[in-house]
Design goal:
The chain has about 80 residues and is of the alpha+beta class. It has one domain (about 1-80): Mth169, Chain: A. About 35% of the residues lie in helices and about 35% in strands. It has two helices and three strands, in the order βαβαβ. It starts with a strand and ends with a strand. The model has no long low-confidence stretch (mean pLDDT about 95).
Length: about 80
């Protein structure tokens, strides 16, 4: 069965996000002062084949933990769709 995983990886809330801070400051310089905070992360889409949803979730979880996310600095969440 074919699945698509949409993975969001974000820096931990406790950590500084220098890239987000720079974008936030730039938005304020453009006059968008209503923006309160910007955090920048990654969105990754993965197409995979697995026998069932459980195997697909296991594969995506392992990919995130072993390669896609730096668990010391980042957290991840994902959604999985069939087809």
């Amino acid at each position: 069965m074919k699945y698509t995983a949409h993975i969001n990886i974000m820096p931990h809330k406790e950590l500084l996000d220098p890239q987000g801070k720079a974008v936030n400051n730039s938005l304020h310089n453009l006059g968008l002062t209503q923006v309160a905070d910007v955090r920048i992360g990654k969105h990754i889409t993965v197409a995979l084949e697995a026998a069932n949803r459980q195997e697909a979730e296991k594969a995506v979880d392992e990919a995130c933990k072993r390669l896609l996310a730096n668990l010391v600095m980042e957290s991840f969440e994902y959604s999985l769709t069939e087809g």
